[in-house]
Task: structure prediction
Amino acid sequence: MSFCAPIRNWPRGSRRRSGRVCCRRVDRPRRLPEAPARVDDPVAAAYAQALKLLARREHGRAELARKLAQRGWDRDHVDPALQRLSDAGYLSDARYAQARVAELQRRRYGPLRAQAELRSRGVDDQAIAEAVQVDDDAWYRACRAARAHVSGNRSPTTVAERSRLQRQLQTRGFTGAQIRAALGKHNSDDA
Result:
């Protein structure tokens, strides 16, 4: 049994085989409907909702609490659910901070940007310090990659170009030492 009409029934103007793709069964839902929330135990329902969010990606405790509050959960139900997730090892600010820092390094951002972003997301300072104090060479590599991305691996020929490149790297959150190392021999004033 075919869900789509044969190609020969399509209008003569359509000569592409993609015509069949547009016909979808109407009676089949695209996604399964979500199970109704259990009203007899709101803490368990908040726990289940938080677990769904954690299944997609790591979250910090404050970020997860904010998302659950946006979905209408009371703080009285959210706090025990988050504590239960922490006790089970599903929720960890340190693990979230490490994952976020690694992602920012891949996207060619620096440690200052990572610290600011984690602070804005409500991660505690100790977890931020531990996550950012990874291998210093990784930050230098990220800075060199950002320099290559921004400048196209061209060396700055004038002071204005070098200043523009330094500003762009500073905006991405790199320290002065990392920027000087990334510019290397192109950091001299006689350029």
Summary: The chain has nine helices and no strands. Residues 186-191 have pLDDT under 50 and may be disordered.
